[in-house]
Amino acid sequence: MAGSGKALVHEKRIEVRWRDMDAFGHVNNAVFLTYLEEVRDEWLEGALAGAGDPMGFVLAGVTIRYRRPLTQGDDTIIARCWPVKLGRSSIHTRESLETLQGEVAAQAESVIVAIDRDTGRARPLAEAERSAIERTITRLR
Fold first, then answer.
1. Whole-angstrom distance, CA of residue 90 vs CA of residue 115
2. Beta-bridge partners for 115
3. Domain for residue 1, yes or no?
4. Of 63, 103, 134, 137, which residue is the least packed, with the fewest Cβ within 10 Å?
5. How sure is the predictor about 141, in pLDDT bands with cuts at 50, 70 and 90?
6. What mean pLDDT is predicted for residues 70-75?
């Protein structure tokens, strides 16, 4: 549902670039995190859709399970992101990277936290932010 402001599971096609490869001809493990960041950032922007500033959040943690290497031959992958839980100041998401043939290359869980830009500390989610994210979680159930 890429591109819709109320996307439940946001999808993004990402081209596997030559520069993403390591010396073994695989996408470097750190680049997997960049792919996940791209889809997570797009998801947050769409989910908030005017209810908050997506730049007012930081990544607090990510856990990734690598399932399969990606190579230049995979050409394009599908990255997905969806919300699973809200905390006082946090949003928990799940993410995946898959080949166009549906093979799972990685699965991840992330926590993003709303921050006060002046202090750099966590802040409670604003009511508009919470409502916008809750709607996407509710629609997933």
1. 9
2. 122
3. no
4. 63
5. low
6. 96
Residue 91 above 50 pLDDT?
yes
Joined together, the tokens standing for residue 125 give 């989610």
> Tokens 């591109």 identify what position?
3
Residue 19: alpha-carbon gap to chain centroid? 21
Residue 4 lies inside a defined structural domain of this protein: no
Place of tokens 């695989």: 26
Q: Is 85 helix (H, G, I), strand (E, B) or coil?
A: strand
Q: Is residue 3 in some structural domain?
A: no
pTM of the complete model: 0.89
Contacts with 9 (C-beta within 8 Å, 6 or more apart), sequence order: 1, 80, 81, 82, 140
Residue 37 is predicted with a pLDDT of: 97
Q: What does the pLDDT average to over 24-38?
A: 96
Parent domain of 57: 10-140
Compute the distance between CA of residue 20 and CA of residue 7 in angstroms, rounded to an integer.
Answer: 28
Distance between first and last Cα of the chain: 16
User: Is 120 within the bounds of a domain?
Assistant: yes
- Tell me the CATH number at 110: 3.10.129.10
pLDDT for residue 59 is more than 80 = yes
